Amino acid sequence: MTPWEIDALELGNCNCNYGCPCQFSVAPTHGTCEAAVVMEIKSGFYGDTDLSGIKFAQMLKWPGAIHEGNGEMQLIIEETASEDQRNAITAITTGKDTEEMATVFYIFSAMCPTKHETIYSKIDSDLNLEKRVGQASINGVMEIKATPIANIVSGEPHRIGLTVPYGFEFRHAEMASGTTKTFGGNIELLNNSETHAHFARIYMNGQGVINH
Prior knowledge:
This protein is mostly beta strands. Helix content is about 10%, strand content about 45%.
C-alpha cells in the first residue's frame, strides 16, 4: 500500500441534532443522514506527493443510517491541486491504501455505492476550531457556515466537546451549530439548518486516527 498521512482542520455539518447520534451509536435524528464536510490539510503526503495546503470537501447523503448503506457521495477538490494531488485525495477519500474500516473515509466510501464525478472548483474557507466559527464556499456547489451553540437561557456561546478515544475520524471535536446550502449540484441537502456541526483536527493515516 502507498503510505499516506494528513494533519487537517475539519468542519462537518449534518442534519441531526447537536452532538450527532452516530457518535453515540444510535439512529439518526430524522431517520436519514445528510452531511457536508470541508477539510484544510495543514500538512500531509501520499507517497511522494505533498498534500500540504490542499483543501477538499465532500457532500454525502443516505436514505437511512450510514451503516445501512445505499448512500451517495460527491467529492470536491480545489481547482489549484495538481493531477498527482487530485489522485491522492481521491485515493484517500475512497479508502484506497487504507486498512479495512480504519478511517471515516473508508467507511463513507464503502457505504456510498453511488459516487458522483469529482468536481474541481475554488474553495474559499476560514475555519477557527478554538472559537467554533467557520465558513466555506464552493462556487455553484455549496456553502457551509458554523457558529457556537447558543446557551438556551442566556444566548451566550455554549462550549462543549466530544472525545472519542477509539474513533475513526477524530479523538476530540468541538461542537457547533451549522447550516449548509446546496446549489443544484448532484446532491441536494435539504435539512441542514442550525443542526449538528463540529470542528476537529484530523490526524490520520492508512492505519487510522493517530493519537496526538
